[in-house]
Amino acid sequence: MALVAPRPYQVVVWGASGFTGRLVCEHIARDYHGKIRWAMAGRDPKKLEQVRSELSRINPSVQDVPILTADANDAPAVGSVVRQAEVVLATAGPFARHGDNVVAQAVEQGTHYADITGEVTWVRRSIQRHHAAAAFKGVKVLHCCGYDSVPSDLGTFMMVEYCKEKLGCGVSQAFMLVGSGRGGVSGGTLESACNIISQEASSELKRVASDQYYLASLHGLEGSDKPAGILPHYVAPIRTWAGPFVMEGVNAKVVQESNALFAAASYPYGKDFKYYEGLAASGLVGAGLVTAATVLIGVVIGVPPLRALARRFLPAPGQGPSETARKGGFWNHELVAVTEEETPRVVRGTCGDRRDPGYWSTSRMLLETGLALVLDAPRLAADPRLARGGVMSPAAACGPVLLERLRAAGFSFDVVGVEGEEGKKNVTKAAEGAATAAAVAAK
Hints:
Blueprint: E1 9-14, H1 19-31, E2 38-42, H2 45-55, E3 67-69, H3 75-82, E4 85-90, H4 95-98, H5 100-109, E5 112-115, H6 120-137, E6 140-142, H7 150-167, E7 171-182, H8 187-199, H9 202-210, E8 233-235, E9 240-244, H10 248-264, E10 274-281, H11 283-302, H12 304-311, H13 323-328, E11 330-339, E12 346-353, H14 357-375, H15 377-382, E13 390-392, H16 394-408, E14 412-418, H17 421-442
Parallel strand pairs: 1-2, 1-4, 2-3, 4-5, 5-6, 6-13, 7-10
Antiparallel strand pairs: 7-11, 8-9, 9-10, 11-12, 12-14
Helix pairs in contact: 1-14, 3-5, 5-6, 7-10, 7-16, 11-12, 14-16
């Protein structure tokens, strides 16, 4: 089992001088310094010292926080840092370029691990390389613990748990519609996206685009679910339209991964559970405009000369939105679950935050995930539904415990209610018209 002996630090923030890493440290400085043992880690001691100095203006005692240094390409040096922690929070991407040794050493040293990657091809390789050893040792390796994919993953878990525990039934289909929001983008995120497009084989990218069980199949789950695709989509249970959401290709695979891991613990989401994620739109025309914008983004990222040109006008790695922009951001998502019953019911919920999704929210999501692993370990171990170790999703590792931590940190995750008898009739009628609506969208 992992963590049989005390470690000097409960939390080590890896990549603490980067844009998101610094924000994780800022959250600790404001809310947890003196309550947990922690350290900052990275490659450049001068940059780390600068971050520590800046954070001491928020909390003067942060000036005493230890600094640990290692190059991500030096496995023994990484191991010397990782073995000092109960959990490592990794923020330095692109992870396919800088993350392999950190994950490998976490498993080797018996240290829990959580990151903010959205690089689903790298996540698949991580499962293939490390799941068996991590499961054997009781080490929890959690990928996608930021805005990609905690709202989708934990939001869906919340809806499924409500249906199973309160309504006594599974879920045949869940939806997440991305609503109003405002946020910025950092150079690190852009670099990760460009790295996936430029480095992965076209055959692997095609598989990502076509296989909803890209991650779940490694845990033994297959089914009939399909990716959302690029066309406008009519969401029949709530009678509205949606366009493609750029991160659906990652988030949906993480949701199905959670379904697979819960199924292994005899808590499947549904008999043939399906998941859809899209950007809420005002009618078919609005959804069509979302499709056009998404195609344009894909062209810019996918065509090397356009990608190079775009980089000249976008933030460089290490740069990102200002503090004013981060704190002025917000996001709101609508959650929908259709019950697995002869006459289906529609359960509706919401999740959101009053701060920037990509960075302020992401950094806090990662921190709360890591703290759940070390501070709430007895509660996690007491829940038979949660995996004991392995490479896994946030929901499968932390489930209701992480939901509680996120709510306490200011996030909203709420089940709004269940549609009544009239709603049941509408669901049935809408389902009958879904095929016709889809045909209209295709034209």
